[in-house]
Amino acid sequence: MSGAEVIGLVSGIISLIDAALKIYNAASDASGLPSDFRDVASRLPLINESLFTARQALQDEPETPEATTALTTMLKACTTKAVALQAIFQAVIPGEGAKRLERYSKALKTIPKAGKVDGLMVGILADLQVLAVHRTFKTVTKAQIEQLIGQAAKGHESEVARQASPSMRFENTGSGYQVVKNGDGSTFNITHK
Question: What is the domain-level CATH number for residue 77?
Answer without folding.
Answer: 1.20.5
